[in-house]
Amino acid sequence: MLEIQKKNVWQWLIAALLILVIPNLICWVVQPFVFIRRGYFVWEYLLLACLYPYINRKIFILFWVLFAIYDIGYAASSLYFMDVFEIFHALVKIPAMSVGDMLKWSGVLVLFVALTIMLVIAMERYNRYYPFLRFKFLWPFMFGLLLADFLNGQGPLSKWSIGLLHIKQNIVSAPSWPLMKSVQYALANNNDNNSKNDSKVEYLGSVAQRVFAPKPDSAADKKQILILVESLGVVKDSVLQHEILSPLYQLATDSLYLLREGYTQHRYLTQAGEFREITGYLFHSYQAQTRLVQEKSIFVKKQHEGYYVVGLHGFQSGFYNRKKLWPALGIQEAMFMEDFVKLSMPLCGNINFQGICDTALSTWLINRLKSDPARKEFYYWVTLSTHLPLFEIHDDGYNGFAEKWKKKGYTEHVLQMAYQHQQYFRDLAGKLRQPGAPKAHILLVGDHTPPFLDPDDRALYDELHVPYIDLAPNR
């Protein structure tokens, strides 16, 4: 009898180990090398396992594999996008990849699917020997993991939890929950397009709203420029951060501009950075026409102050649906890649995110400012050339810049980003100091920290803040 009991205990322990390890093993292996946000365990796998006795085996494996793909995809993307629909939109709008990249990512996907199927089959085979893929066995794990997360103060129950354990990482994730909430919000917005649905709009604060606050006409600058700088983060090493921004500091040293700088909070990627600076709030793209967003938009406010509002971006107008979003937020004239190509302006960047060179756009902007000096104009420029993946530069200038930092252990990825930001600022500063250059009040602010996949690279940056540099003409 005792031997039978011991055997049952071992069978139970093995089954418990399998149901806890197999759904999460691949992510545990990948996590040290790729920056992902995910709990140690994912609750939905337990729910899927409960369905095993009731559905066809092949359908069960198909559901498991599809959810596993969604799980790791969401874990790798949730830091960067506000909701699942934004992830899907970004994937659909990414330009055609090279054959090499397509083969590489197809191979990764095939390998992931094959490993997932192998793990599921291993779990399934043990289930024939000791049936554990059933609710009767699994419910204590489902309840226990949620209880642990409730005590930890994170995960799907964070709003109601008490936070006694204080473990930094989530114990349990439930990636299907954000998908359901996204669908709910989108349906609610479609049912009430005039939206009193402002409760889902989160305030974060806008540097642009403070810097470009209304002034009397006698004190207001006729030309104001808000530049959202792609992937400009705060490097924790203050010396390197200073070197990146040094061309802008030189403008102040030469008494051409008054410079103020600081840091502001950020969340997610570029679109959230845009909404943050335009309105001070984080919201979903389908909420752009809500009453609150319309009232808070800096573009609408600038129109009321008598400014003509122009937006420019070197990428395609369809990406993030800017061709519709920008006018909805108050931009009166929008210029995108397809417009600048007609002007024979050069392309820059990695082939996956190739667009009009920021250096060419700065020339266009300076000339546009000169064309009507007396007109009140507000320009909004979203830069592109420092978008990941970068087109790497290996000239003498880069080698001289990177040499000392490589000795301190900085990787090629981080140094390429730092150098290309510095070069962008050098180009802009050089054009602002030219004789006859128009005087404009300029605010440069980062949209988000560089979204490097390597956790070690990301650790070199402030996770919560991006820098801003306010350049006011020295009258």
From TrEMBL:
Keyword Transmembrane helix: yes
Pfam family, one: Sulfatase
Keyword RNA-binding (UniProt): no
Domain Sulfatase N-terminal: 225-469
Keywords: Membrane, Transmembrane, Transmembrane helix
Entry's transmembrane regions: 12-34, 40-55, 62-82, 102-121, 133-151
Record's protein name: Sulfatase N-terminal domain-containing protein
